[in-house]
Amino acid sequence: MKERLIILGAGVMQGPVIRIAKELGFFTVVLDGSSSAPCVWQADRFEQIDLKDKEEIESFARSLQNSGGLGGIMTAGTDFSASVAWAAERLGLPGIPYEAALNASDKSRMRTCFKKAALPSPEFITITAGDDLEMTPLPGGQNLETPLVIKPVDNMGGRGCRRADSRAELREAAADALRFSRSGRAIVEAFMEGPEFSVDAIVYHGEIIICGLADRHIFFPPYFIEMGHTMPTVIAPEKQEALLGTFKAGIRALGLAGKESVGAAKGDIKLSPRGPMIGEIAARLSGGYMSGWTYPYSSGVEPVRAAILIAAGHKPESLVPLKTWTSAERAFVSIPGTVKTIGGIDAARNQPGVKDLFLRISEGSKVCFPENNVTKCGNIISAAPDRLTAAQSAETAARSILIRLDPGDPETAAFLSAFGSGTDAAGPVFPPDAFQPGPELRAVLSRLPEFPPSDVHDPSIYLIPFPEFTASKLTDYAGRTVKESLSAVRTLTGLSLPEDGKNSDNNSTLLGRSFWAALIRGGYQGAVYYIDKILCGSPGN
């Protein structure tokens, strides 16, 4: 009989765990709260169990242990390392102490552990819905000054996490963070300046084995949206050493690296002007495609394989890198609306260097501009011998994906009507415009002619020229130039859209100021939506 292994989670991030466990000869027993999770079909056995219900997980695991044996229990890329630790501790299986897992799952406990160990971590307070955020200093006595970051103590993927630059923004952010908290608590902490890095590690009987350090690419304040990461980092070796030293100290402060402990750790570390500072450390391998995809592509080794083996009480295989490639992950996003079509998938997959394409949407999906890392539309992963090639491959593939929105969705119209709100005197405003022209270009736009919508079903359509914009070096959310965006509009609509509208005849439809405003605000999606709205019978509809 094969040795049985329980895996918490049947989502995309657990796909490599299930696959590799089966390759290693384990009988995979996969638990998830949803029977429609995407990787359910990969499991040798599936059980629908709420992953927050640690007692139910323990009971089920004990039933397996008492009827044929159980080798171990683990997870990767989920919030539920504490559930794993609870069951492992009570059943005498390899793992980490439950209290240590709680330290790495609850951000308030985590920050307290770092503070006791005198590790570089931001000052913080913990709040609940009843706390008065008008108090000075804030509840708890900490004299925290803006900018601040607020986040739920017990969630992942950036849900409910944002920056606040005023007390008014803090109140709004607090309501959002508390809404995403299972325990009704959030932390407010000092904002950390500087670039951010992700790191994975295997922890084996007190030894901490690093499995890669990646540059994270964060955009769209006041939220922290990771539009990709690149593995390995390009920062100087001495700075890498400092970051990893701080990460290892954080692992020990949480109690994850005891002599009897086996498991994994994932960290988000910032390189602030004062040196490395700990963002977060979780008692698991990372989600976000790092442990299961980009590190294996760049190094030739699989941390997931080691995590599986130690969870079942076996010695891990070597994690010494076999090669030094670069792997790049890049996301693609959408403005708000309903997906009508998704184009360019084959072009993206066939881009040289692309290894994987993950779509989170389909035709008919509701989409929004992301406020966290689980509301993006999809991800591209590439690999190449050098960093430039890998990055260009992933970014070109991401730009190949063209999402056309249903012209009947008023959420898209509302988004486009907010043209010009991308910046104000106080700084960035969310959601941003796709392009960010300066005052001079906006002044030129305001002088362009405007034309009423056309009722003609098969018109000759011309663009009023806007050469100051089309010749600019501005790019949209995905790095498309204006000319590339216009090319995407032509591809989706099937219209040639010559930019010589001043020479058109009286039977032509002219697109002027409003068209260009839609392109600036919503990129190619905004321009296509505008055309679809005014030309209901035009080609491509």
How would you describe the shape? globular
Radius of gyration, Cα only, in angstroms?
25 Å
Q: What is the level-2 CATH architecture name of the largest domain?
A: 2-Layer Sandwich
Strand portion: 15-25%
The total domain count is 5
Mean of pLDDT: 92
Major β-sheet annotation: 8 strands, antiparallel
CATH superfamily of the largest domain: ATP-grasp fold, B domain
Total helical segments: 16
Summing up helix and strand content along with how strands pair, one would put the structural category as alpha+beta
Structure report:
The protein is of the alpha+beta class and 541 residues long. The chain has five domains: 4-93, Rossmann fold, CATH 3.40.50.20; 123-190, ATP-grasp fold, A domain (Dna Ligase, domain 1, 2-Layer Sandwich), CATH 3.30.1490.20; 193-324, ATP-grasp fold, B domain (D-amino Acid Aminotransferase, Chain A, domain 1, 2-Layer Sandwich), CATH 3.30.470; 327-405, Aldehyde oxidase/xanthine dehydrogenase, a/b hammerhead (Aldehyde Oxidoreductase, domain 3, Alpha-Beta Complex); 410-534, no CATH class. 32% of the residues lie in helices and 24% in strands. The chain is built from 16 helices and 23 strands. The protein has helices at 15-23, 54-65, 81-91, 98-103, 107-116, 167-179, 237-253, 290-299, 303-311, 345-349, 387-400, 410-417, 439-447, 467-470, 482-493, 513-534, and strands spanning 4-8, 27-32, 45-48, 72-75, 124-128, 148-152, 162-164, 185-190, 196-204, 207-219, 225-231, 262-272, 275-282, 326-332, 337-343, 354-359, 366-367, 378-384, 402-405, 423-424, 427-428, 461-463, 509-511. The strands form six sheets. Strands 13-12-9-10-11-14-18-16 form an eight-stranded antiparallel beta sheet, sandwiched between helices. Strand 12 and strand 13 form a beta hairpin. It starts with a strand and ends in a 7-residue tail after the last helix. The model is unreliable at 422-427 and 537-541 (pLDDT under 50).
